[in-house]
Give the backbone structure.
Amino acid sequence: MTLDDVRRVVANVEADIASGPIVPTVTPQEIRSYLASRYDFTKPLALDDICADVQRMLRTWQVQVTHPRYFGLFNPSVTLASIIADAVVAMYNPQLATWRTSPAANEIERHTLAWLMGKFGFPADAIASFTSGGAEANLSAVIVALTRAFPEYGERGLRSLSASPTVYLTAEAHHSFSKIAHLTGLGRRSIRTVATDRELKLDLGDLARRVAEDRRSGHAPFMVVGTVGTTGAGVIDPLPELARFCRSEGLWFHVDAAWGGAAIIAPSLRGHLAGIDTADSITCDAHKWFSVPMAAGMFFCRHRDAVGEAFRVETSYMPGKTAGPVLDPYTTSVQWSRRFIGLKLFLALAQHGESGYIEMIEHQARMGDVLREALTRAGWRVVNATPLPLVCFTRDGLVTAKFLAALYQRQIAWMSEVRLGDDAPVLRACITSFRTTASDIEWVVREMGRLT
Ligand SMILES: Cc1ncc(COP(=O)(O)O)c(C=O)c1O
């Protein structure tokens, strides 16, 4: 197969998806019976037939997240280069646990991460790694922050601490932190939910009050999380003020920019991320707004020593111990065996160039504005405030579940519902495809008008 063949296959799949349904109707039983009837694994089958069948299943039984009218949960359309990268990685199967085993792959990742690290304004001696996604990057941040704040945490565990550590974030922050508190042994109750202002941004007064209260009652505050592009409403927390507060209180400042972080490269948007350069650590997912296939997250940290301490390990059976100044990724990250995650971002970035990527991101931001304007013109009420392409909206008397069922049934678009603060559920539409056009949006808003 040549590259042109791959190009043709990908173009055909894209065209097929764009002209077909977005939302499936299927029951678990239907899929299970189908699989049981065809795949008992007792005899070999022809690979071509199996591939065609699997593609049919994916085509029929999935929400088509790469459809231009999928206005969903940060799952992007994917670039051709990034699709090819994933296939190339599978063919060579490089093992990135150690530098010695895969020098080329490790250096390609380092080179790509250094590019983005520079955009975030981190110093050249900061450290970064690809992760399975934002949840793993956030987990890495909490582990490293704990390690730095409590030197005994690594050897003797949280139970050896004289005060319980506490983390501060808003109800709009990503709920991976809840699982992380459970996983790390912090306990879910160690999370302090800080109030938000009318725009759902973290309220600094409430943060200061809670930290002071916790200190008074013998807790040990150690970390604050600010979000760039909250999952529900795309809100950006006040980063410069958070950074100042964390510095004065000696707290770790983590910025979860899993989705919104990509805006740092776009001249029209990067001003909204001012202050991110002062973070102790950053989460940014390539498999969100950088439009590469899952799974590709990134973790950036300015404290190389703390990362080395958090993930250190010694064993004689791993190769590469004599690699000199190059730290092996299995000693600087959560993962051990690791896939060559970074190639998809490297290849897409090299092909499109920074300017191509800026255009993709700014196009989506413009489409967010088109959506906001079209909805407002059509009588909907936009209820969130963000420069990013995520629009939450409603109208009087709307029953979101019923409305969405009709939207899906007519295959108009995929969007979701969200509850912001204590308010009633509203509709949530995010531009996640660089292929979404203004006419897609106008059409969707027109068709939505016929449903209400
Ligand atoms: C703000 C934010 N942080 C973290 C995550 C978790 O990322 P992932 O699903 O890549 O693990 C998400 C997922 O949508 C998110 O929106």
